[in-house]
Write a structure and sequence with these properties.
Radius of gyration: 21 Å
Oligomer: single chain
Number of strands: 19
Number of domains: 2
Number of helices: 7
Helix content: 10-25%
Largest sheet: 12 strands, mixed
Order of helices and strands: EEEHEEEEEEEEEEHHHHEEHEEEHE
Distance between the termini: 58 Å
Low-confidence stretches: 1-11, 13-41, 392-405
Length: 405
């Protein structure tokens, strides 16, 4: 049994206070696959249509939370005085695809320590937003995309989760293993070739993710907090399919997604893998699918990712994931950043596949200078609870045309 509390030979370790990322030159893009089908006034290639929207809403592997039949969105921004919400229309898709509707009366609500939002459609139907995706634009302004959806039929409001995190151990750990952490340019032509895997993750790691959790728990469970004991037991005892616990079933995660790995990289290697519950793997797929779509659909958008796994001590289990996705078009750059805590998040919110469709369509609209369908002020905005929208510098004024260069 390896000593998980000591770094292994050849594995990079860092002090907790040190920098957690390393940079790597972007690989040169060689060629692109799909051709665009329309061009805007400034020559930007566009191809986000109803078919794209429907395809991105389709949950091929049944990993996401079921789509709401009615959805909406709001891109939030704090302009120094108030929080504004800009809405971007989604194209009409297939009959079974969620129907996008404009929203009015967007207001902030607080539930169980989390900041959330609710709004109404023009017909008076109430939609809620319990999840968000933060990005910075090319002017270094902070925004957050909030997808809105209906509550479930059994409850008047959606599942809100919790902002509280499990504590891991009472004993401070001075060093931590990092996997990933370097910027990797996505090569569009390589994506099409990554259809099969030459070797399984189990063969690479020499055991399953479930066995990795079981081994760690048997050896070091007594050194974990009571909260982390609960986290481990719900992962180890999770059903593979067919129950609410299946979202915690352990899986091997790729830092650099298999299909996004460039030609020079072997994604099926230990340095690119880590164990975590299924829900955190699904969370990573939101930005991965965003990047995959833009890399293959537009010959003018450069895509780069910086995924980082902060491992649990010196084990193969992931304590924290930080994922950055950078999409660039000429002088414009949009950078998404998302932090996931696979072991510490008590009540994770599972995204909907329509989230992927909406953030993809919104990103394309921002690059193409599409004016928002509607821009309004967010009611009841509490600045203390929206720190993620407030940068260190005083933000510049924002209006519906501010994305134009």
């Amino acid at each position: 049994m390896p000593n998980f509390f000591m770094p292994r030979k050849g594995i990079r370790t860092v002090k907790r206070s040190s920098s957690r990322s390393a940079s790597k030159p972007l690989a040169k893009r060689e060629f692109h696959t799909a051709k665009p089908n329309r061009v805007d006034q400034q020559g930007f290639s566009l191809s986000f249509n109803g078919r794209d929207y429907s395809n991105l809403c389709f949950d091929r592997y049944r990993r996401f939370h079921p789509n709401s039949p009615i959805i909406g969105n709001a891109v939030l921004h704090y302009n120094g005085k108030e929080v504004t919400a800009s809405q971007y229309e989604m194209p009409s898709g297939a009959e079974n695809a969620p129907q996008w509707q404009p929203l009015v009366d967007i207001q902030q609500v607080n539930r169980y320590g989390t900041t959330a939002y609710k709004a109404q459609t023009l017909d008076g139907v109430t939609l809620f937003s319990n999840r968000g995706y933060k990005f910075t634009d090319w002017n270094n302004r902070i925004h957050e995309i909030r997808p809105f959806s209906l509550h479930t039929s059994s409850y008047q409001e959606p599942y809100w989760g919790s902002s509280r995190l499990f504590s891991i151990t009472e004993t401070p750990v001075d060093e931590q293993i990092i996997r990933g952490g370097s910027e990797v340019a996505v090569e569009p032509h390589t994506i099409a070739t990554r259809t099969t895997r030459s070797v399984s993750q189990k063969s690479v790691m020499h055991y399953t993710a479930l066995q990795a959790f079981e081994s760690f728990y048997i050896e070091y469970g007594s050194q974990l907090t009571a909260e982390m004991d609960v986290a481990f037991r719900r992962i180890i005892n999770a059903e593979f399919r067919g129950s609410a616990s299946s979202k915690f079933y352990p899986e091997w995660h790729h830092a650099v997604g298999h299909s996004l790995a460039p030609s020079w990289m072997n994604p099926q290697e230990k340095a690119n893998l880590g164990g975590g519950p299924r829900w955190s793997n699904t969370m990573m797929m939101v930005l991965e699918n965003l990047c995959r779509w833009h890399a293959t659909q537009s010959q003018e958008v450069d895509v780069a990712i910086t995924p980082t796994f902060f491992m649990l001590f010196a084990s193969d289990l992931i304590e924290k994931i930080h994922y950055e996705a950078s999409l660039s078009y000429r002088q414009r750059q949009i950078k998404f950043s998302h932090t996931i805590e696979p072991l510490r998040q008590i009540d994770p919110i599972i995204p909907q596949a329509s989230d992927v469709a909406q953030i993809t369509g919104i990103t394309q609209s921002l690059f193409a200078n599409v004016i928002p369908h509607l821009s309004t002020k967010v009611a009841n905005a509490d600045l203390k609870s929206i720190k993620s929208l407030v940068g260190e510098k005083h933000p510049e004024p924002f209006n519906q045309n501010s994305f134009r260069l």
